[in-house]
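USER:
Class, as today's exercise, take the chain set out below, and explain how the chain folds.
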Amino acid sequence: MAAEGKKSTESVGRLYSRASFVGYKGSKVNQYHHTALLRIEGVRSGEATKWYLGKRVAYIYKGKKADSRGKKFRVIWGKVTRSHGTSGAVRAKFRTNLPPTALGATVRVMLYPSSI
């Protein structure tokens, strides 16, 4: 029990789902860098991806030099556009294309905007 006069520390939880950047959209010969393929944790069917359509996506990385505010972390924002296949992958478009060094990296799928 928390002592009287002290606030209890409850865990709030994450406001995002984790996903992996697994590649770019492609065909037999071409690769389309403007569309990223994401694998969201816990999503294993095409039906389950419908809830994530339209959600914001953030790729957070660390730059070499600090910006004007003294921060080294930077963000590329995107949006989930549609599902990709039947096994739970989704397509996302980012404001600037994700760099190849981001392959396999973790991105955040924000739980907003919500359609509930």
